[in-house]
Amino acid sequence: MTTLVRERRHQQALKLSLPPPIPASKFRSPTNAPALSPAASPGSPVIENFVELEKLAVLGHGNGGTVYKVLHKSTSSIYALKVLRFNDGSDGVRRQATREVEILKLVDSPFVVRCCSVFHNSGVAAGDLSFVMEYMEGGSLQDLLKSQKTLSEREISAVARRVLLGIHYLHDMQIVHGDIKPSNLLVNGEGEVKIADFGVSHLVEGGGVAWNLSPDSCMGTCAYMSPERFDPERWSGGDGFAGDVWSLGVVALECHVGRFPLTGTGQRPDWPTLMCVMCFGERMEVPETASPEFRSFLERCLEKDWRKRATVDELLEHPFVN
């Protein structure tokens, strides 16, 4: 208990790091460039057996699984272990997990939480699937907002730039994340934000449309979904990639106002309420407390028509994140 309290205090005291601006020529990678397997990342040990890990604490629960803090016995390194449990009738969860495994095998970026190993039937329970992930000791952006309420524009700029760099990498790999939100943006001990959780992500082949009206397409957190996912007929479906930009805009605005920004105070961001906001509401209002640069950034992210919304490339050149 003392250890958990100490870790929570460390998370509350954590400040986001503010790295110097990175020239566009330095971070852009060629489209469809080959990626290393996460297990092949330099300096990462290959964890081949579940018994090499010792559970230290529970970090969280959700989406049919549990995340543990674990110790790799042979190297004394700390990791996060995400264990998904499949029950009868959980075919949708299995498909979701299979997609996540396929995507995690592809990605290797300093702006994405690294996956070191994946275990099938790990011995925790029959049918379990376990991911050994990079341990992010600062918790999530959601944890940070709970303790600090709001972030300064300088801190929001740092968050937005790192998330944009991560989205840029994923989109170059033809991956739509689909669930950018504070709880899926994790913070390490240096205050660096990285994208996590690919449970609802999609790999788009041949430049096709990422989202459709299949049951799986409505998975994720509706509060951060883009207008084209709520009303695909009006907005011609969308390409999926622009939806990640919208979600980032909602996150950035939430960091500024200290609460979920698309509904009124006390309103629940449930599906019917959000449908009214997305389908019948006017253009998203940006608080006057925001600077002109921040207002411009938010307006370009929160353009309802995905065809007019800013691209990731455009936002990476925006004054607010530079």
UniProtKB/TrEMBL annotation:
Region (Disordered) residue spans: 19-40
Record's protein name: Protein kinase domain-containing protein
Skewed-composition ranges (Low complexity): 29-40
Family to which the UniProt record says this protein belongs: Belongs to the protein kinase superfamily.
Residues forming coiled coils: none
Domain Protein kinase, first and last residues per copy: 53-321
GO cellular component: cytoplasm
